[in-house]
Predict the structure.
Amino acid sequence: MRRLLTAIGALIYSAASLPAFAAETLTIGITQYPASFHPTLASMLAQRYVEGLTLRPVTAYDQDWKLVCMLCTDLPTIENGGAQRESYQQDGETKEGMAVTYSLHPDATWGDGTPVTSDDMLFTWQMGRDERSGAVSLEAFQRIRSIDIVDDKTFTLHLDRITYSYNAFSLALLPAHIERPIFEANPSEYRNRTAFDRDPFNPGLAFGPYRLVATEQGATMEFLPNPTWWGPKPAFDKIIVRAIENTAALEANLLSGAVDTIAGELGLTLDQALAFEKRNGGKFDMVYKSGLIYEHIDLNLDNPVLTDKRVRKALVMALDRKTISEQLFQGRQPVADASVSPLDSIHSPETLQYAYNPAKAKALLDEAGWSVMKRGLRHNAAGERLTLEIMTTAGNRSRELVQQVLQSQWRQIGIDVTIRNQPARVFFGETVSRRKFSAMAMFAWISAPESVPLTTLKSDQVPMEANGWSGQNYTGFKNAEMDQLIDGIERELDFEKRKALWAQLQSLYVEELPVIPLYWRANAFPLPKWLKGVRPTGHQLTTTLWIEEWRVEGRN
């Protein structure tokens, strides 16, 4: 019944808003379906991808990695007076912070006609800083001490520290007129009651070029133009996003014409794309974009086996990551040594590199007490077998192939590794976010330029029931030196001094190894010849944030 109602709703909206002649439709294939449509309660790329159609962050890094306004009118800086240092009192101490003033676009309006205002910012902050809400970026909200409302379109954020990223506010605002009553009724249950999931077709949830009008759970999302959008008119009268978790099936849908294009951020794996280009390159413009996409394996450091650093180092040294990159990806996805890309300005070339060394890996396991060999597998003195489980997104052919190679290479040094995969919406929405993986979880972090690993590495960012599963430190890594370096980097405004701290962080990361670095991923965008204006970013923000720039040229 609900599916029928959503389809009827889409038809009604379409009849009211679109001309009677044939419409221009774009169908995009992606590999994941969002676990939630809420902008701050989810940490999933699929959600970010479709959010790019319906919302806009206050600021964003563009395709040239430059910080720009999206919802604001002018980027506040110390130089133009939009940001200032300030002192404040806390617990009897004088501390230094910053005051940053933003002005929202005067024409920004929710799809139901309600203006986007400073009150939306105020509510977004109130919700996000409340631990009961389960916001992923809890710390980012809590560092805002207070907000002054200057007028309906202008507000000042008072930050609790001096930080070099003072004017980077990449979060989307929430509609206070819809979400505030839901939150205030029961903050602990808010994540289960938000209109973004219970009433996702409400026009008041969108102020971007499009709004969501229909879904088929787990499969399809349909978007129509938002009549209140203030920017350039988008080229398409309808956008359909289809989630096809199996990448081989996704490729087949592209060839059959069931989808027009595949999102590079959530589409074909690089090995698939290279083979696809050889067979069908003349039919598509193939765009490859390297960037800040860090494929890695999170280690659950609560696992007694993985608490031993020698075991973690052995796991890395047993892997021939360079050969994996060359044979599977034609060398286009270079080995990652740490969590900072060589393309980033703060990368340190002095960071230790773990070379393929199975002999050293075996020696480390012997030292760690896993020295008894039985039928080719390691056991400790108590007779326990060295066995670990690795999980990733089911249907991602590249990850599943890499898994099998890793499993084989670990077996060669006596480690028994089992594979168990899940659909992306379950893997990210439940297993990873609530730390339910027993040993290893393979996925990618996608960051912005010079992005401090605050939520992924700080000790107080470990998700747990007590904090509403906030934070992204899924490994459970707790290290006082790392905490100090993260704080120091954030507070240092001088780039050269900050870069020196970054070098220390990268060295500590590689020494402690809370994760297994794999490689820097390149995304492949198979674009039909008639689709123009798609510019991959190479960082965490998706191409859909500039959907109004996409256009059609020469489509038959």
